[in-house]
Specification:
The protein is built from ten helices and no strands. Helix 8 crosses helix 10 (155-177). The chain has helices at residues 6-10, 23-36, 41-46, 50-63, 71-85, 88-100, 105-109, 122-135, 143-149, 155-177. It is mostly helical. It has two domains: 17-63, no CATH class; 71-187, Up-down Bundle (AhpD-like), CATH 1.20.1290.10.
Length: 205
Amino acid sequence: MHRRVLPRLLKMARISLNPPPTLSFRIANWFMRRKFGTDLDPFRAMGHNMKVAMAYGKLEQSVVKWRSLDVKLQNLADFATVTKIGCPWCLDFGYWIMHTQGVARDKIEAVPKWRTSKLFSPLERLVMEYAEAMTETPPTVSDELVNKLREHLDEGQLVELTMVVCVENVRSRFNSALGIAGQGFKDRCEIPQRSAGPSRVGKVA
């Protein structure tokens, strides 16, 4: 009974997800719910400090307008960063985002093993290598890696890629530090299994 609720109960966030219901929080949360179909736990955590929440929200609104770099490369950079950090919420949400933007399921699930997977192009591999190198502490980006990227990207695209990885580090580290768990976004991507019905052998439809 209540099986779908148990995972969320077992892993509690380190901060209350019920911030003061100020007018600005309620308005912003309404827009979040309308866009994503549910409250977003990272925003609920940030709601304890609406100046932080609103400043961060403006950044995110700007990020979605960055389009000098192909969106699928952005997504791979994001997800490689998330995988490196291991943020449960971002893994869950990122999987859903990539799925809704047309990235094949097997390609999404191959990101953690991109070095041995045959599903990625040379540029996609470079983008994920760059994301991982940037996310190391300290970063391990080399001149050689940047030079290889510059064979495919102009300087504006390289700047955008770099900032995409930086923003994902902010997301993932904030959520990880506060113990924010996944919210079941990946479940929306699952294909419901059909219940076994009576045999149709020999029956013409």
